[in-house]
Amino acid sequence: MKWISNLFARYWRSVHFLIIFQLSLTFVFGGDQIASRVSGVVVGAFHYPFFMIRNTFVELSRVNQENQRLQQELVEFSTRFSRFEEMERENVRLRAILGFDPPAGYSLVPAKVISIAGDLVPTAAIINCGLNDSVEVDQPLINEQGLIGRVVTVASDVATVQLLTDPAHRVAVRIANSRDMGIAKFKPSQGMILDNVPVQANIKEGDLVVSSGLGGIYPPGLVVGTVVSVSRSEEEPFCDVHLETAADFNSLEELFILGMDEP
Amino acid sequence: MRVIPYILFLLLVGMHVVFLRDVTSIYGVSPDLPILIVLLVALYKNDTVATWFGFAVGLVAFAALPERFGWYALLMAAVAFAACQVRERLNLESLKAKLLLVAGGVLLHGILIQLIDTAGSLAALWTLVPAVTVYTTVIAWLFFLFKEGTITFEKTKSIF
Predict the structure, then answer these.
(1) Model confidence over B28-67: pLDDT tens digits?
(2) Coil, strand, or helix at residue A148?
């Protein structure tokens, strides 16, 4: 038995190399089944964990790119949404304007406010119509709510509008029901007031105030505002009347110039 | 316990095949990490261990080609055996001699792979193979510098 162990020890290295050579030949010529099975085990043990790691990183990278793209789209869509909301509001305003008829003998020239001037309250506005649109000085401006003011200067493409809220502005008005007359003017300390209304006048809160047509600038019947308070004093010959303007002068956008129709 | 380092080396080869090869690629040239690991084992271990390890690395590195991976495993084992024989006969000590052995082994392996591989082209013999050899030898050089203590982490940190 000893000679066998001596023989084995002497050729031990050669046995190793022979086994390796034999295994290699088995994988090459042993058929696809053996090679595929061994390959499957090796791939499962030494490749698969790293496939998982690589795929995780690839997926994370893809998700990150997708996230950036979606964030960009979100910004784009929210911008578009804001624009659509603004268009919707404009649509509502324009629909309201569509139901508005100009006074007889006048036609409407649409104009957009491009600038507003004034410290605490707006006193003047610049509109995008001028001589090229046949705009003239002293033409009245209205919107769907009521009287806005009059054109004071005109350039080729723009015009300046003196608003009712300018303290230097005056409008001859009358109470729609009682037909009592007065002068509407704006005082920064008091707001819109009605001057020269006698104490005997039949005027009360809630009465509608319209332009009287006197003075030659504004046609009669344009809504100026509503009476919010009336106070009478026995010592004073005139009432103290406060008005609320029909138009909101803090949100002027679309206006109409009242142009007189050709006879 | 003595097998664990070799298993870790095999895992490193598996990692190289799956994604490290792509990550370390420069203009389409990647280091031949499997043969480098086999040659390093052949430099420091006996021929039986190196040959078995070469065989195992051949199986892991070419597991995706089951119809030919027997040849590749045999080739890797043969290169490991040859490297051991060269080391024993020439008694390599200097850094240059070790690098020469690594470069020769990588070059020989690259040439034989191109000859075995049916999809390999002869043009790769004087374009891709030398480039891979240089790249792999540079990595081996860095490894030897680290192993001999010429480069250490402390020295590297002190630069910055």
Answers:
(1) 888 889 999 999 998 888 888 899 999 999 989 888 887 7
(2) strand
- Write B145-149 long-range contacts (CB < 8 A, 24+): B145/B95, B148/B95
Measured in degrees and rounded to the nearest 5, phi and psi for residue A175 equal -75, 130
Cross-chain Cβ contact A43/B81 below 8 Å: no
Q: Are A206 and A166 in contact (CB under 8 A)?
A: no
Between A94-103, B33-42, B73-82, the lowest mean confidence (pLDDT) is in: A94-103
- The C-alpha angle B31, B35, B38, rounded to 5 degrees, equals 135
Q: Dihedral of the CA atoms A111, A117, A121, A127 (nearest 10)?
A: 0
* B71 in contact with A, Cβ within 8 Å: yes
Residue A169: closest CA among A156, A154, A186: A186
Ordered by start, the domain boundaries in chain B are: 4-159
Assess if CATH 2.30.42 describes domain B4-159: no
Question: With contact defined as beta carbons under 8 Å apart, do A40 and B57 qualify?
Answer: no
pTM for the full model? Answer: 0.57
Query: Is residue A208 classed as helix, strand or coil in its secondary structure?
Result: strand
Q: Which residues of A touch B66 (CB under 8 A)?
A: 27, 32, 35-36, 38-39
> Which residues of chain B are within 8 Å of residue A36 when distances are taken between CB atoms?
66
**Residue A148: partners with Cβ closer than 8 Å, 6 or more residues away:** A125, A140, A141, A142, A161, A163, A164, A247, A249, A252, A255
Is pLDDT above 70 for A263? no
Is the ipTM reported for this complex over the cut 0.85? no
Q: Which residue has the tokens 């005139």?
A: A238
| Whether B63 contacts chain A with CB within 8 A | yes
> How many angstroms separate the CA of residue B7 from the nearest CA in chain A?
9
